[in-house]
Design brief:
single chain, alpha/beta, four-stranded parallel β-sheet, globular
Length: 265
């Protein structure tokens, strides 16, 4: 029996396990790539996973930020990475979606996948529909939903009392983050997103970040350990994540992120 199966299914229950992963950035796509091998027909036979990913849409930097400002669409970058991570074919199509233009007026810095999702959003008139159609193009092993279809941004309050709006500006702040909220506050989740969470057997990875930012270090440790057990590369992702840096100095988090220094895993 695999370590993943033990971690998610300690009672050895039969049937597919419904796993929902919530997050963004490189962490979520890395986790999805690891989980994909356990979908029916890959890796462990007769023990399939039903994977759903709920992806944050607050990114306002790089190619995603430019497209967001110029075309009034939700940021496609994290969605694109998750689509590629769950893609059945990791060959040409996946490489095409990840291709980034290095030159060209207006094109430099954009990835093909971001442009594809933006164009499809303009055609369908709906970002979630564009994600659904892109999922079929890449024949992904799971389902991907944006966390909301509303145009949202992150706002943080720092320990000096200053409020900072926008994910990019928050990540560059030198003061400790006291609280984080969405703007506008009344954004609506998708019905499919709520249904996926309600039906899930396990919700993974990003809960570690949510717990840590809320001050629940024990909860962050528990969920981060599980995420690392499932996909060891999550340790590297968490080390490089600016949001994790706000609480990664806690001893139990340090033990997970830097086991070679602490002597424990």
């Amino acid at each position: 029996m695999s370590d993943l199966r033990k971690a998610l299914n300690p009672n050895d229950a039969s049937g597919p396990l419904r796993v929902v992963s919530i997050g963004g950035g490189t962490g979520l796509s890395t986790l999805l790539h690891g989980l994909k091998q356990y979908v029916r027909g890959r890796g462990v036979r007769n023990w399939p996973l039903d994977i759903a990913a709920i992806v944050t849409v607050t990114d306002d930097g790089g190619s995603s930020g430019r497209l967001r400002r110029e075309f009034d669409v939700l940021p496609p970058g994290d969605i694109r990475n998750c689509l590629v991570a769950l893609s059945e074919d990791e060959g040409l199509l996946s490489r095409l979606f990840q291709y980034r233009f290095e030159t060209g007026r207006g094109l430099k810095g954009h990835s093909f996948g971001n442009l594809f999702l933006t164009a499809l959003t303009r055609i369908t008139g709906d970002f979630p529909d564009a994600v659904r159609e892109s999922s079929e193009v890449l024949a992904i092993k799971g389902r991907i939903y944006p966390a909301t279809a509303d145009n949202v941004a992150l706002e943080a309050t720092l320990e000096n009392g200053r409020r900072v709006l926008g994910e990019t500006k928050i990540s560059k702040s030198r003061h400790r983050i006291v609280s984080v909220r969405l703007r506008p506050r009344r954004c609506r989740p998708l019905a499919d997103t709520l249904a996926a969470i309600a039906q899930a057997d396990h919700v993974l990875y990003a809960l570690a970040l949510a717990k840590g930012l809320a001050g629940d270090i024990d909860g962050a440790h528990e969920h981060l350990k599980r995420a690392i057990d499932l996909e060891p590369r999550n340790r590297i992702s968490a080390r490089q994540d600016a949001d994790f840096a706000t609480f990664s100095s806690q001893p139990q988090i340090q033990q997970l992120l830097f086991p070679d220094k602490t002597g424990t895993a």
